Amino acid sequence: MSTAMNFGSKSFKPRPPDKGSFPLDHFGECKAFKEVFMKCQRDNSFDNSKCRLQSKDYLQCRMDHQLMAKEPLEKLGFKDLVDPPPSQADGNTKP
After folding, report:
1. Spatial distance between the Cα atoms of 93 and 84, rounded to a whole number of angstroms
2. Under DSSP, is residue 81 helix (H, G, I), strand (E, B) or coil?
3. Which among 64, 73, 70, 62 is positioned nearest to 26, based on CA atoms?
4. What pLDDT digit, counting tens, does each position of 3-51 carry?
5. Residue 61, helix vs strand vs coil
6. 43 touches 51 (CB < 8 A)
7. ∠ CA 90-52-22 to the nearest 5 degrees?
8. What is the DSSP letter of 8?
9. How far apart are CA 28 and CA 58, in angstroms?
């Protein structure tokens, strides 16, 4: 008697990870950014608000190396740290 059951029509379909979960940095592509961020955290008693720039740089590195989904930094809470587009940086001067 066979102990294996065959359901026939059901098959495994891979799906992307849920938002908030992302692959590990196996090749250390963003290790330097992570170390700077973690040092900032330790130096500031793990007060996240004092390490926002380092956090932004680390997340940007992860997005650049496809270790997480690309998201606008504004959507990740860094609107105040993002440079405005060149058209807005010049102000509203008209020729």
Report:
1. 15
2. helix
3. 62
4. 555 555 567 676 665 666 667 888 999 999 999 999 999 999 999 999 9
5. helix
6. no
7. 110
8. S
9. 12
Q: Which residue has the tokens 């040092």?
A: 39
Residue at 90: amino acid letter: D
Reference 67, options 33, 37, 30; nearest CA is 30
pLDDT at 24: 85
Confidence of residue 95 (pLDDT cuts 50, 70, 90): very low
Hey, what amino acid is at 75? K
Nearest to 60 by CA among 73, 47, 49: 73
CA 91 to chain centre: 30
Token code pair at residue 87: 């058209």
